[in-house]
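Translate sequence into structure tokens.
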Amino acid sequence: MVRRLVEVMSFSDPGPPVDGLEEDLRRLGEALKARTEDVVRGMVLRTTQSGHVLNELVEESFARVGTVSTVAVARWMAGESPEVAREVGQESWHIFGQLAAQRAAPLNEVTKRCLRWCDAAEDVVRETAAQLDLCPEVLTRALSMLQRSLNVTLVRMCESFETERQVAHEELTRRQEELAFMATHDALTGLPNRTLILDRIEQMLVRSRRHQTPVAALFVDLDNFKSINDTLGHAAGDELLQAVAARLDGAVRATDTLGRLGGDEFVVIAEELSLAAGPELIAERLLEALKQPFTLGEGDDATTVTVTASVGIAAGDRLSAGDLLRDADIAMYRAKWDGRNRHAVFEAGMQDTVQRRMELEMDLRVALENDEFLLVYQPTFDLRDMSPTGMEALIRWHSPTRGVVQPDDFIPLLEETGLITQIGKWVLEQACQQGAAWREAGYPIGMAVNVSGRQLDTDELVSDVRDALSHSGLEPSALTLELTETTLMRDAEETARRLTTIKGLGVRIAIDDFGTGYSSLAHLQKFPVDALKIDRSFISGLHDNQEGETLLHTLVQLGKALSIETLAEGIEQTRELSVLQGEQCDSGQGFLYARPLDVEATEAFLESYATSLQAHATSLQAVSQPSARQSTTP
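Result follows.
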């Protein structure tokens, strides 16, 4: 049991001592200070006897509190002011604060240590007073001062624990708020996430039904963000997403909500006054906000990129928030298929279209491993003597469920999903192997392969070309990579660098569909181009008007001025061939002479040409032999 002090019933100051008592009290204080260790031992002994000993470090802290408290009250008894004693006791209050902050000891155990210290100090004070033969008045005053020290210590200790409790409560509240924010907001941009957006849409739909007000969700998806991420890295991609979020946030009204659903997907929800001019106006503001280029990085490492977005709009009441978002998402895909950098409004029937598109994508993702793709080859001819000079490799898809799928129906989806890089690498490898096999069989023809913009976005294309040549054994000069004008201009500087590296391997470069893009003479001189493939739209117009011939003449002469080979695509009529030959166009291809052929048909075509060439040579030889004999006859 902790012994109570019964001699002192009041916490009031005992009043100023008389001179004799003051001297005796000073002696008692000095003696108590000298016996500080005795007080601490008595305190520790009581704790040990209680059977509730805490860990060693905590008990050492309590012992230090006992030492500091004993010295403080002893100095007060010895005549120093209470302020001095309180200053000495600051260390013990600091220790209490640490114990509270670290949750090292429960409040009841700390309180017990304080009372045990007081009991141990009382025992030493009584024993010392008896040894010094002090009068009862001095002992009473000393015990009063000890009691007041205990009272102050207990109050300070409680204050320390209360302070730390408040700090802990504030920290817990802050963390709870932080966790709640993290649970409902995107960590990268700080915008509301899918969870919060869905909740706000549900609330918006309830208000709409109650007040008959319009509502809309706008699904915003960045175009070609994956290529930016792959080219510049994820850090730059994150920086771009943050910058896009800031731009979009500045374009919406305060009454609207902008959120990020994940990846490069954002959403805007609007209602009432914001929709007075229609959700299309909001979509146009969002697209306009993205027109200015973004600068990523700093200093010499800064990179400028331009991004666009496709926006899907779903307006009107729905059964749930998920339904509204789903329809906006479907409309967004419609905007992408229509050319990107635009908005589309959800309409009935769109969902079936999207479902078919999704199924097509899933089929495409397994087509390569299921060996469903194949290559066909369309010959190109030297227009001077109509001899075959090469083959253009063209991909075809034989789906087990869809039959033959036309390139226009699946190549755009390969581009959009990024599968084109994997499929394009396969095409390059297969075409090089086939080209090498034909050349080894004695057919001196080249091989042309189309390259997509996605492939040209990274340096992987260079290594893919190098590997395809190495594995197949095809001479580099026999390979031509065909790229459209639009592909060349996606990132002119990087494209020029990569094409120069590929050109260094000995590979030829051709611009496909020339005349339909926006490359200039300066751009043509910048790229290491070997051939221009004149788009079929210029060829098919030859029989309609004189302007077609004028345009063709201009394109062919441009090639000659730059010492670049010209090749006409889509020759289907003899008149078109005659005009091209008259303009001295170098090469051509088209249905007039050969459609795309499978491997077997291509080999038959090459064999037929070789046979006819041999027959022609034999015929010429037969004609020349009689003349030779006649010249030797006397």
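Note: The chain is about 60% helix and 15% strand.
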